[in-house]
Amino acid sequence: MRTAALALLLAAFAQIASAADEKISERPEKAIKELTVPHTESLLKSIGLDFKKVEARKADEGMFFDFKRGPFDVRLYNFQGKDLMLDSVFRPLPLEKLNDWNTRAKFSRACLHKDSKGPYATLESNLDVAGGVTETTVKNFVLGFEAELKSFDRFIGGASLGDDDIFQGAVADRLENVFKAQAILFKKQEIPQKNVTLYELTIGKIPMRLINFGGKDLILESKYPKIAAEAANQYNLDRKFVRVVVSAAKGNESTSLEAYLDCEAGTTEAILRRFLLAYEEETREFADYVRQQSDSKQAAK
């Protein structure tokens, strides 16, 4: 009897606890009017983001949080807890193209910027915190930006592209579709005896060469002044998608930055576009690295 009574009592307590939990879960979220840096970190971790925290150079810019969403590098700015902004960098685009996006978009804006490295475009989105937001609002703001990035990426690539159509090999006309849609200037040279096509490209004012080996694979390369073998090896250790090759040929001493794409098993125009534009960013970063090596060499003299 005592055992049965105890079981009934425990069941009653369980029902009371369950009802209390339901009431707690039904409580509305509290409005946040100032999002602290620790609170921001907590929210980013709660949605599974692996981020790097960077303190801004200017005091009014607060703190940056860098992370990836799919293929995109994203930065979250926390402006003293009162305003959040997300952005991602793209190659420079004509103002008319950016304005066309801004005419259509609901949740973002496209802008053209310029720094010491030259012009570049960004896709940006802001969230006003000072007026009051919930944690769910902030999470949706961060996670929803990826869809906007994908739409913008497709928009600047040309709406007519068959982005998701898988085809075998880097077929020349599909590759040139990407060049034209991206307004990439190119010169083409066929080498039939080697089944090779060379393209001299200019992306964002950066000259480079793309070598198409019979549609099976592609190599992008650009030339720089020669750097020490140790410096080239260190760069290779630090990178994932490119390699540095030092040429010691007499009269032709130079350094090449190269990227490789296997197309034989199948690719898409979206993959080709990403390959080209990611390489452009790599060339900018490597140019800075080469300059640093040159400055260090001069300082050591």
Q: Structural class per helix/strand content?
A: alpha+beta
Low-confidence region ranges: 20-26, 158-162
Helical content (DSSP H or I, runs of 4+): 25-40%
SSE string: HHEEEEHEEHHEEEEHEEH
Q: How many independent structural domains?
A: 2
Instruction: Compute the separation of the termini in Å.
Output: 95 Å
Name of the top-level CATH class of the largest domain: Alpha Beta
Radius of gyration: 26 Å
Number of helices: 7
Shape estimate: globular
Major sheet description: 6 strands, antiparallel
CATH topology of the largest domain: Yope Regulator, Chain: A
CATH architecture of the largest domain: 2-Layer Sandwich
Taking all residues together, what is the mean pLDDT? 83
Strand order of the largest sheet: 1-2-3-4-6-5
Short synopsis of the structure:
By secondary structure, the protein is an alpha+beta fold.
Descriptive labels:
alpha+beta; 30% strand; six-stranded antiparallel beta sheet; Yope Regulator, Chain: A; 301 residues
Walk me through this protein's architecture.
The chain is of the alpha+beta class and about 300 residues long. The chain has 2 domains: about 35-155, Yope Regulator, Chain: A (2-Layer Sandwich), CATH 3.30.1460; about 170-300, 2-Layer Sandwich (Yope Regulator, Chain: A), CATH 3.30.1460.10. The protein contains 7 helices and 12 strands. The protein has helices spanning about 1-25, 35-45, 95-105, 135-155, 170-180, 230-240, 270-300, and strands spanning about 50-55, 65-70, 70-80, 85-90, 110-115, 120-130, 185-190, 195-205, 205-215, 215-225, 245, 255-260. The chain has a 6-stranded antiparallel beta sheet. The chain has a 6-stranded antiparallel beta sheet with strand order 7-8-9-10-12-11. α5 (about 170-180) crosses α7. It is globular and about 75 Å long. Residues about 20-25 and about 160 have low confidence and may be disordered.
